[in-house]
Specification:
about 210 residues, alpha+beta, Potassium Channel Kv1.1, Chain A, Alpha-Beta Plaits, 2 domains, three-stranded mixed β-sheet, three-stranded antiparallel β-sheet, 6 strands, rod-shaped
Length: about 210
Amino acid sequence: MAENGPQPCSTTVPQNSGSGQGRISEWVKLNVGGTTFMSTRTTLCRDPKSFLYRLVQEEPDLNTDKDENGAFLIDRDPTYFGPVLNYLRHGKLVINKDLAEEGVLEEAEFYNITELIKLVKEKLKERDAKQNQNFTKSVYRVLQCSEEELTQIVSAMSDGWKFEQLVNIGSQYNYGSEDHAEFLCVVSKECPNNINGTESESTDKVKVRYKGLF
C-alpha cells in the first residue's frame, strides 16, 4: 500500500481571473460506462502515473470527450470502478463478494494504479493458495523394512512422495548371533482431495511393505 497520500494536481488560477472565474473546480464528474461518479481532484491524483491523474490536469495530455453534464467519458465497466475509486479515496482494497478479483485487476491495470495492482495480485495469490489447500490432502504411508531394504525404499521414491520420519523398532529376527534391525519409514504425498468421498479406502491404508508402493 502506498505510504504517500494523494499527489497535488495542477490547478492554478489565471492571474486576471475574476472572483471565482477561471478557477478549476475541486470536484470532478466521471461518466464511466454510462454511470456518473463524483470525486475530488485530490483523490484522483493519488497516483501521479495513473490515467486519472493525467485526465484531471489543468492541461491534460489525454483527448477525452465529455457528456452533456461535463463529465469525462470513460468507456469502462462501472461495476468495477467502485473498488478503484474507493482505493484512491482511502488507500485500502475493498472488494464486494459479488465482484471477481480478476475484474478489479483488469481495471487497476487500465487506470495504471501501481499500488492497487500489487494489492489485487497479492489477494489473488492468497485466494489461489487457500483453494489449493482445500483441494489437496496429505496421504501418509508407513512402511516396515529392514536396514538393507531402507536404501531401496529411499531410492525408489518418486511421483511426489517424500520422506518424513524413520523409527527404529528394534530387531524382530535373529539369525545366529546377528540382529537384523527393523524400521518404520513414514512417507507422504500431496494428493487431490476427493470431495465426493468415492476414493477407494484401500489407497489410504497403512502398508507394511514397500514393494509396489511407488
